Amino acid sequence: MTVPHPQPTDFEIRRIPYLLTYPLRTAILWPNHPSEVPLAADPTGLHYGLFLASDSSTPVSVISLFIESPPASDFTPQQQSKGKIARFRKFATAAEIQGKGYGGALLSHVFEDAKRNERITGVWCTARVNQVGFYEKRGMSVVEGSESDQKGVKHVRMVMEL
Length: 162
Description:
Layout: E1 11-15, H1 22-29, E2 46-52, E3 61-67, H2 77-81, E4 84-93, H3 102-117, E5 120-128, H4 132-136, E6 141-142, E7 148-150, E8 153-161
Parallel strand pairs: 4-5
Antiparallel strand pairs: 1-2, 2-3, 3-4, 5-8, 6-8, 7-8
């Protein structure tokens, strides 16, 4: 069964204060490890929320973007010389709307905004292994040999030029 993509009139995406990301980060990403939710860099990051038209005060998907260089081997020097590289982190979508296209819409918006308004030319993340397919569908690639473990959750680094 094909899930219909959300229509732009169903939701709004906007930049939000970082504290507004914490409830979803906790509930979806680290319910048993709330100390993993706040990041020291949160005050300097760009934070985005996707809000359904039915509730413009509570985000149902959140993501944070930071100007942060990846390990040197992830992008070639030529790629890095083209412009700023950003890392997105703490991407979470409410369980009841996962698989319906809202998270993908938010990620696409963030990539476009980063490229257009922040002059970002490449992005990277540390993705949970069970989410690799989601990111590959959107053009990202796994960095060979980048596997890691965080609190028992397997991760890999992924990259993409914008």
